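Observation: inputs received (chain + iron/sulfur cluster).
Thought: call the complex predictor directly.
Action: predict_structure
Action Input:
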Amino acid sequence: MADRMAFFTTPRVERARRDARERLGDWREVYRPGPLLPLVGGQAGRCMDCGLPFCHSACPLGNLVPEWNRLVAEVDAGVAEPGAVGPGTAESEAAEPEAGAGADWRAAAARLLATNNFPEFTGRLCPAPCESACVLAIDGAAVTIKDVELAIADRAWEEGWDGPRPPERTDGRRVAVIGSGPAGLAAAQQLTRAGHATTVYERADRAGGLLRYGIPPFRLEKHRLERRLDQLRSEGTEFHTGVWVGRDVRAEELRAGYDAVVVAVGATARRELPVPGRDLSGVHQAMEYLTWANRVDEGDCGTPPVSAEGRHVVIVGGGDTAADCLGTALRQRAASVTQLDINPRPPRRRAPGEPWPGHPRVYRETTSHEESGAVEAGPRVFAATTVGFEAGPDGRLAAVRFAEAEPADRSPRPGTEQRLPAQLALLALGFTGPEPDPWLSAQLGLATGPEGTLARDDGFATAVPGVFVAGDAGRGQSLIVWAIAEGRAVAAAVDRYLRGWTELPEPIRASARAFTV
Ligand SMILES: Cc1cc2nc3c(=O)[nH]c(=O)nc-3n(C[C@H](O)[C@H](O)[C@H](O)COP(=O)(O)OP(=O)(O)OC[C@H]3O[C@@H](n4cnc5c(N)ncnc54)[C@H](O)[C@@H]3O)c2cc1C
Ligand code: SF4
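Observation:
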């Protein structure tokens, strides 16, 4: 038996990161390659295999966390029980675990891939609401669920257990997916595997959505995305990149040529900052900046048109996008980087109003913040509201003015204004919904809901027969794990629409939301 008291005797140890200074010298992923597998067995053994696994229900995909924890923990302890997880514990498209050498890692991979199309993305990028909901997190340190997931996902690729699964037969029905972010990719993979001829249309020159041109390579090396796209292609999914549906191809043509259409166009309409000087040269939206940094990594250009090199940089915003700008600016050798976050500094521990098992707002340091500390590149200022941008003699941005934000309404507190020299300011203020796309909306008959997202019913269907909406386009800017869950669920809805029934898993309804109080 594995050690049932391991949660008590084994401390939580997270995956090792490379030295922060070393990381700033390249664009490779921040984690130290290699040592995850030996670590994971002991960490997975900390799982208490709770009768009611809240981690499982906190994951929008319904990942079978205690099951894979048990399988890899037992392997680590040398007491493998091949096939210990029986059928019927969850919807499973994957093969039953095989006995023999490596059978338990393989079984763990089968359980993981039964609920998650792209665990190598979530294992690297998910903020892990499952760990907040782990019973151990009530008064201690959660199981390192995300690390375990990643170890299993990477091992599955290495061993060839996550190979292409083309359909045994196709049924002649055709589906178009618009958008190739994680929602569109998950939908396409599920539909192709179910036997429908599926084509993905993407306006960008490469597929991947925000995985490609939003998230920087130091958090996701793009060869991992290429590997997954190759797998989708080899299963039969077709890709047309550089095709803006609504402009390059009329949406009516898609409706006429396909039996169903999935709209997974994301939610990348950027929030603006209407303050004096916003239009100065040197003030940019974060996505303009991050896209170019990713393009340099892809080899599209040597020097990006927007670069932090040698400049004093101010990032306005406090979320993931801001942290990605910070890590990118540090790698571009900015003279200094200051982050202005309008929110007050969150507490280090759960506030009473944010009880377990929800994902709490607590103070978090990303790997980019760790790096900025290592080179003392600049402060992170909380409760700071940006009041304007100032031009220098050359007419370009020379300084950012900010003030303390009043807690009640975030307005500038009189007498607190400060001035920061800056040649580059990046706006990372979040996203308001899908980008307005009158051509696409008019041609497909799409309506906008009250929250600014594309309207759909609880089963992902729009008012137009055969047209469905998935991912951030229907939910608003969210997380990769939600996008994959939406992609899987919309595939089931489309399959049912086409055949009248479905065996595809439906992890969520469109109205499902993360647990909050
Ligand atoms: C900088 C940044 C960092 C992030 N980091 C994380 C993270 O660490 N962890 C996490 O979980 N989430 C993160 N997110 C959020 C996550 O990336 C998104 O929630 C997720 O990508 C949404 O997936 P999607 O498929 O719905 O949309 P997207 O990924 O936005 O993809 C939509 C695609 O549709 C295409 N498209 C749009 N209109 C058309 C058209 N008319 N014709 C053809 N194609 C079209 C777009 O070009 C795009 O490729 C981050 C977001 C940003 C911006
Ligand atoms: S996808 Fe995210 S929430 Fe789900 S198990 Fe993995 S880390 Fe946890």
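Thought: report the result.
Final Answer: Residues 480-499 form the longest helix (20 residues). Residues 75-103 have pLDDT under 50 and may be disordered.
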